[in-house]
Each structure stands twice: as structure tokens, then as C-alpha cells.
Amino acid sequence: MSNLKADPTMSLQYVYTNQDFVTDARRSTDSSSGMASPPAKFDTTIQAGWADRMEKGLFRYHLGNLQTRILPGSRGYVAQLNIQRGIERRKPQEILSIQQEFSAKQFNFNKINPEEIIFEMIKDTERGTALHHSGQLHQPCRMVVLVNVSPLEFGHCLFVPEPSCCLPQVLTRFAIQVGIESVLLSSDPGFRVGFNSLGAFASVNHLHLHGYYLDHELKIESMPVKPLLPERGFYRLLDFPAGLLFYTESEELEKVARAICEVTDFLVDGNIAHNLFMTRGCPPYDHRQNEKNLCSRKGVRIAVWPRISCFGAKEESSFNVALCELAGHLPFKNKKDYELTTEKDVIDIIQRYVLPDEEFHRLEQQLTRHLMGL
Predict the structure, then answer these.
(1) CA 28 to CA 257: how far, in whole Å?
(2) Catalytic residue status for 133
(3) Which of these is catalytic: 156, 206, 208, 210?
(4) Strand-strand pairing, 78-81 and 117-123
(5) Under a CB-based contact definition with an 8 Å cutoff, are residues 264 and 156 in contact?
(6) Predicted confidence (pLDDT) per residue in 311-351, tens digit
(7) How many Å apart are CA 19 and CA 48, to the nearest integer?
(8) How far, in Å, CA of 170 to CA of 173, rounded?
(9) Total Cβ atoms within 10 A of residue 7
(10) What are 59-104's pLDDT values in tens digits?
(11) How many whole angstroms separate alpha carbon 92 and alpha carbon 150?
(12) Sign (positive/negative) of CA torsion 247, 299, 185, 149?
């Protein structure tokens, strides 16, 4: 059972085990009873903590219900208008390299107001040990969960592995595993976790993942795939934008987290920028298979998009293509773009950032051989 512990010297601790994973998260429209899954302790803790910080005025702006529309077309893009984020958010850091070192002089999560921290996640394993940030079994490592003071949606928070370690924005096995575990701890299929590498519109070079709630179904949850190495949970998405997909239910979680980390390490070593998106989703299938499990949300789909690098500071007036946009969630910063952008416009913009087909297929083959140990 998950439990919350108050330590007078530390933040609130959210202690959990594998038994706390929600085996089947359901939207009310997905179940025969018309009832959504009851909220899990993980969700109520994040949401109450987030609302409390909003009430205390710790955010850069008040986030109410966002104006939302589904773009006409087959892809079901979810467009949202969030003008304040474009105006009020902290100026992104200038990023010059995918392997740029952490700099204590730049903004980092050791400089935040401690009140922004909602809780620290600590996994209680049978052996009394937990994954260290390096991926080894070691002393328990904290995953600090704090509010994103420039939120793009309800419950938008940041997952920061042991902030005092001052890790650069490069995924570790620990970060990947706890990201997947967070999705499994939530009973809400709308809870998403994502990552932007350096060169893929990461704003801060201090290891962090994003988590937030989006109460709209995305195509990525049920998009057909081509098997590449299914024994390692590895597939290719069969729709635009070209990307790689991993799938896991709770039993295979550690094995799949290890495979994802092998892929992201390979991309970092090759100086290839990438975005990652974790969401509840149906088991992998291709166009020819029975689609009877399309509504199942027992497992987690993890999409990885290798992409063209963008260096220098973010251009805040542009339509940035990062983890949300690649997954089909489009936060707009101005009303005109929100109202007038079409599905074709979105595809044309995203196309500029994804790898050319030939380059993607070559990379796909390299990664498959790499995961096979060849």
C-alpha cells in the first residue's frame, strides 16, 4: 500500500510498492458501467498539492479551464489555447549541445522555492533497496515531484531525480523507470509523462521529466505498430510522425526501462535529439490484427521520437515541436493560431523537425541490432 510520511527535516514522502500499480485505468466512456476508475492515492496527492500551490500564488499565472478544440481530420489533434504560458514562463536556457554539461550558474531545480515541492517519491522494495540514479540497485534515490510554475495543463508537475546530484538533461534508467511507474500509479488514463532532450526543446539542463493531465484521448494511445524486437517491447509506430514505441505492463517494467535507456543512450552518443512520451495505451497491434483490445489501458506506451536538433535559445513566438506536439497535444500561445491552424498546417510544421524517412529507417535498423546485442 502506498503511504505518505511526514519527515520534519524533509518534504512529504510518497512511499509506494509494485502493489500500488493500477492494473486497468478506465475513462468513463471506455467501461461498460460508464464509470471511470476511482482516483488513486497518487492522483489525489498530486492534484491536491498542485491546487494548494496554485491557491498560494506560487505559479507565474492562474491556470483555469483551457479553451480546447479537436482539429478536424483523421489525426484527432487536441489544440489548447494557453496565452499566459507564452508570456509569463521563464526564458529558456541557450542549449548548444545534446551532451552539454550541467552548469550550477544557470537556473536549476536546486534554486526553486522549496514550497514548490509536492512530495518525494520513494519506492519501498522487498530488499529495502531501490534503483539508484545510475540504474544500479543501491540506496534509495529520491524522485522529487514539484509543480511546474508555468503550467501547460492541470496538474503539470516536474519529476526531478535527486536534484543535488546535478544531472544534465540526459535520461537515466532510474528516471525512465520511475516515469513509467508514475503512469502505472495513476488510475487516470489522461495522466501523461514526457521528456525533451537537449536540442529537442528542453528548457532547463537539469534532469527532469514532465507530468500532467490531459482529459482527451490521443491517437498515440492506440496507433498501430510494426514489431521490431517484441521480446524487448520494441516496435515502430505505423503512422505520422515516424517514431519508435515500447510497451509494458507492470511485470515487464524493469526490462523495458532498461531497453529504452539503451536506445536513448545510443541517441545521445550519436548526438541525436529526441522526445519521449509515456501514456496509458492499448497493447501493440498492426493493421492486420484484431483490434479488440483498443480500449484496454492496462499497460503503458512509451513513444521515442528521434528528431532534427534545434540549438540556441527557444524562439518563444514559434510553434515549438516537443513532447506534447509529437503526441498530438498542441498548446497554442496566441488565439489566431489556435483558431486558424488546420491539421495539414500541423503536419507541415512537425515534418520540419522529424528525421527524413531514409535516415529514420537507417537508425531504426541500427537500434534493432543494438538491442539484439549485435
Answers:
(1) 30
(2) no
(3) 208
(4) unpaired
(5) no
(6) 865 554 446 899 999 999 999 988 999 999 999 999 999 99
(7) 23
(8) 10
(9) 9
(10) 988 888 899 999 999 999 999 998 888 777 777 778 889 999 999 9
(11) 12
(12) positive
